[in-house]
Write a structure and sequence with these properties.
alpha/beta, eight-stranded parallel beta sheet, 9 helices, binds pyridoxal-5'-phosphate, globular
């Protein structure tokens, strides 16, 4: 078995273990392959390894996403997970299955505008800065309801859930409270029954901590390094 195939097998075992611990079903957790900086060749290996299953790739730069997009057929779904500038929204609307990183009304307004133009509904997550790190994007908890109330009026956007990028920590257990907090936010907001808002997706967990994230209710884990090895940014 090749390097990537072995990695995917190990990850699958860990996912199986975490869903068992938390009494969840495998189909409720999406393994999003984070493909930033990876070559089309490596990505094709992942695609062939999972054969006929629908596969999802996550990219964080618009330029790189656009370059790779045409190299794969429609079996591949694309998620945008990086910070998105408003002037680049029109390049990705209609091509991405889910935008994980919406963190302002102004960005959502732009997504809504281009989705309307293309007559499509764009699925989004709201990125929440749960850990309140200065360096991180995302809205603060206190701002979340107000933002959702505005976005809920946008006809060409569907808010599917919440996303967070947890801090990098040595022991993944340290992030457990962040993941449970994001889950709690989702539950609390759903209970408010804001018109048009009924969220089900929690995008949380990366290479270092996806097992803990699944135990805490993650529905999308964003995994790069564990699949492809250490990234080369040159
Ligand atoms: C790069 C990236 C990941 C994947 O990180 P790994 O530690 O390599 O699994 C996940 N989420 C976001 C937003 C990223 O930018």
């Amino acid at each position: 078995m090749g390097f990537i195939a072995t990695n995917l097998k190990d990850i699958e075992e860990k996912i199986q273990n975490s869903i068992k611990i938390s009494n969840r079903s495998r189909k409720d957790v999406l393994l999003l392959a984070v493909t930033k900086t990876q070559s089309v060749e490596s990505m094709a290996k992942v695609a062939s390894d999972v054969d006929n299953k629908i596969l999802s790739f996550g990219e964080n730069k618009v330029q790189e996403f656009i370059e790779k997009y045409d190299k794969f057929d429609e079996k591949i779904k694309w998620h945008f997970i990086g910070h998105l500038q408003r002037n680049k929204v029109k390049q990705i609307v209609g091509k991405v299955d889910l935008i994980h990183s919406v963190d302002s009304i102004r960005l959502a307004t732009e997504i809504n505008k281009y989705s309307h133009q293309q007559d499509c509904i764009t699925n989004i997550l709201i990125e929440v800065n749960v850990a309140k790190e200065d360096t991180k994007n995302g809205v603060l908890e206190d701002e979340l309801v107000a933002i959702l109330e505005e976005i809920s009026k946008m006809e060409y956007i569907k808010v599917k859930g919440l996303m967070t990028v947890a801090p990098f920590v040595d022991n993944p257990e340290e992030n457990r409270k962040i993941f449970s907090k994001l889950k709690q936010l989702l539950v609390d907001i759903n209970e408010k029954k804001i018109h048009n808002i009924n969220m089900s997706e929690l995008s949380m967990g990366m290479t270092n901590d996806y097992a803990v994230a699944i135990e805490e209710g993650s529905t999308i884990v964003r995994v790069g390094t564990a699949i492809f090895g250490k990234r080369n940014y040159n």
